[in-house]
């Protein structure tokens, strides 16, 4: 700075300079009611418990993770993520390198419930790496969900498919499914890598042992307290400006509507509503009678999960228009679930009647088209990587071994990612048209 010759000017200049600095600082301070969440990327829809959705909604742009020039260059090659497209994601796989043993890839062949029928089918466990509990073979091999390189690869595949949100299978700490290990300790890894790729994470709460309305409150509180401020944690904006988490509740019908209402109804004395742990709760619709039950229970919406057209009332494509009308009439979110096909005979060798052939992608495109015709609020994909039931869109490759595997030929390993990307773009344009 240039000095003035006259000493008497120095105090005046100093005061003016101080005022200027204070003004600039104050102008750039955030308002007192600004969101404490540094990254909010979710559909800014209305709260369905209050009123019908405002279709003129927008998805907020994600705040950027710390600069990584190499990653930024890679992300520019992907289509933008569609945060109205959710994919069910399973982090339950293990390998000797990361877990000391294979987990889930060695899934047992489950016996039929009729002992006489069961006698006609093989039983026992699969023996990875050549014999796995799937009718397809993953391009990454029988991987571990703890492997950061695998999770990174998955996020790249998700971005290739323009999927903006993963709904991660979740059990409370120290609980697990019948064939796996506890999953909660994997959530920080998934959230951190998802954030790098601008992907959001939803918790898909499984029917853990002893699930009831009391421990559901406890577990939702645990999730929100531990993960709710993570920038990759998916939240839903209501008309009141609240940012609420969204939870898928698998097999929600296993608890009766009276139990759920104690948790989800505003009038219940121990309700989660209007507490710091309020959220959007999405029930699984299997049978038609569940429509009435989920209304009584106080759910905010429904999803259909199963990728088998005709397997259940909810998963039957021709029913989606009527289900959507029911949701419209009752201020519920409608989230149909689409899938590329279904085959689980590697783990349920007697269940061939529920197999749905992929027909080189035609089955998937048919279900995606049906979902769009029903004008859903979101579309959920069953699944990114549920290999046991053959619903995965993750890359698969031909495999020659004593076990006979299906593959995606004559198409590329990425065919189902490419189909998803195409329909995510169509869904995005349709949503904009519906808003006009």
How would you describe this protein?
The protein has 436 residues and is an alpha/beta fold. Helix 7 packs across helix 8. The chain is globular and about 60 Å long. The strands form two sheets. Strands 1, 4, 5, 6, 7, 8, 9, 10, 11 and 12 form a ten-stranded mixed β-sheet that branches. A two-stranded antiparallel ribbon has the order 2-3. The chain has twelve helices and twelve strands. The chain has helices at residues 9-27, 69-75, 96-99, 115-118, 148-160, 187-196, 213-227, 257-264, 290-297, 320-329, 362-373, 415-435, and strands spanning 82-89, 108-109, 124-125, 163-170, 200-205, 235-237, 243-249, 280-284, 301-303, 333-335, 337-338, 379-381. 30% of the residues lie in helices and 12% in strands.
What's the helix and strand layout?
Elements: H1 9-27, H2 69-75, E1 82-89, H3 96-99, E2 108-109, H4 115-118, E3 124-125, H5 148-160, E4 163-170, H6 187-196, E5 200-205, H7 213-227, E6 235-237, E7 243-249, H8 257-264, E8 280-284, H9 290-297, E9 301-303, H10 320-329, E10 333-335, E11 337-338, H11 362-373, E12 379-381, H12 415-435
Parallel strand pairs: 1-4, 1-12, 4-5, 5-7, 7-8, 8-9, 9-10, 11-12
Antiparallel strand pairs: 2-3, 6-7
Helix pairs in contact: 5-6, 7-8, 8-9, 11-12
């Amino acid at each position: 700075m240039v000095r003035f010759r006259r000493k008497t000017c120095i105090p005046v200049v100093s005061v003016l300079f101080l005022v200027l600095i204070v003004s600039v600082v104050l102008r750039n301070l955030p308002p007192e009611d600004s969101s404490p969440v540094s990254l909010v990327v979710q559909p800014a829809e209305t709260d369905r418990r209050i009123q019908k959705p405002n279709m003129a909604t927008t998805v907020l742009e994600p705040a950027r993770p710390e600069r990584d020039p190499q990653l930024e260059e890679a992300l520019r090659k992907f289509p933008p993520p569609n945060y109205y497209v959710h994919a069910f994601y399973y982090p339950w796989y293990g390998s000797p390198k990361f877990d000391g043993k294979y987990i889930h890839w060695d899934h047992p062949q489950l016996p039929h419930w009729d002992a006489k029928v069961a006698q006609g089918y093989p039983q026992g466990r699969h023996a990875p790496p050549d014999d796995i509990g799937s009718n397809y073979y993953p391009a990454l091999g029988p991987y571990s969900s703890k492997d950061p390189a695998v999770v990174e690869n998955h996020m790249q595949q998700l971005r290739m498919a323009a999927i903006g949100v993963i709904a991660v299978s979740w059990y409370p700490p120290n609980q697990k499914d019948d064939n796996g290990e506890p999953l909660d300790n994997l959530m920080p890894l998934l959230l951190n890598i998802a954030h790098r790729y601008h992907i959001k994470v939803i918790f898909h709460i499984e029917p853990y042992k002893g699930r009831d309305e009391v421990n559901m409150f406890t577990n939702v509180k645990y999730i929100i307290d531990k993960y709710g401020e993570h920038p990759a944690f998916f939240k839903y904006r209501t008309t009141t400006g609240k940012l609420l988490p969204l939870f898928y509740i698998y097999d929600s019908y296993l608890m009766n509507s009276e139990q759920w209402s104690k948790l989800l109804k505003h009038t219940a004395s121990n309700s989660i509503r209007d507490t710091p742990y309020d959220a959007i709760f999405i029930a699984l619709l299997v049978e038609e009678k569940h429509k009435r039950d989920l209304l009584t229970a106080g759910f905010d919406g429904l999803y259909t999960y199963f990728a088998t057209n005709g397997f259940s009332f909810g998963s039957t494509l021709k029913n989606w228009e009527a289900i959507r009308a029911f949701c419209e009439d009752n201020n519920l979110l409608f989230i149909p679930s689409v899938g590329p096909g279904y085959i689980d005979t590697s783990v349920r060798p007697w269940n061939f009647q529920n197999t749905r052939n992929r027909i080189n992608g035609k089955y998937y495109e048919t279900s995606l088209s049906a979902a769009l015709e029903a004008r859903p609020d979101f579309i959920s994909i069953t699944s990114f990587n549920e290999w046991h039931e053959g619903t995965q869109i993750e890359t698969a490759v031909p495999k020659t071994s004593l076990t006979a595997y299906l593959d995606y030929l004559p198409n590329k390993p990425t065919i189902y990612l490419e189909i998803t990307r195409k329909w995510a773009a169509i869904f995005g344009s349709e949503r904009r048209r519906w808003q006009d």
